[in-house]
Amino acid sequence: MKKILITTWLTAILAVLFPLVSSSQVIAKLNLPDSRVYVRGTSSMHEWEVAIEKYDVEFSFRNSDNGKMSISNVKAVFAGASVTSENNIMTGKARDALMVREHPEIVFISDGAENVLLNDGKISGTLKGKLSLGGVSKSIDIGFSGNIKGDRILISGSEEVNMADYGIKPPTALMGTLKTGEKVTVELRLSFLIPGDNTGSN
Questions:
Q1: 181 assigned to some structural domain
Q2: Predicted TM-score of the model (pTM)
Q3: CA-to-CA separations, 98 to 14, 56, 122, 128, 165, in angstroms, rounded
């Protein structure tokens, strides 16, 4: 009888605590109108830039009491066909190089980071994950920084990517006289909305 009472008591406590633990993990949703993703590179004639206009990024986070937070379940999906620039030729060349018909999505997936620094609303850390580009997946580390204010998280990050590592041939134009470099820099300025005040910041 005593064992049954103890089991019942423990079950009741877990039933109460489990929702509290679950609710402490918050899902951040991308605010697309306030976000920007650019890819910048060089060529034999000038520097170039394209933007990615359609994408979705989502992650979960949990705060701790030691000035750190954990990020988990990171997934970013970018539509290759939404790559665009002010130069129509460059837009077409970039989409061809990305093989958007065969591989329409560029995907980054990460389990997250456990020790993201959180200090006075400012965050910084590194995400280790896999980038799938042109049908090839490779491990990649992306450093980021940002800040939390009210119901928003603003995150910035940049990473150099060698297109040759993913089997992508750098675009050329003007009968081959304009040749782009193998390495490009992906720059992200992302805005996220979070439900309620779960940040611990003012």
A1: yes
A2: 0.78
A3: 50, 18, 35, 23, 13
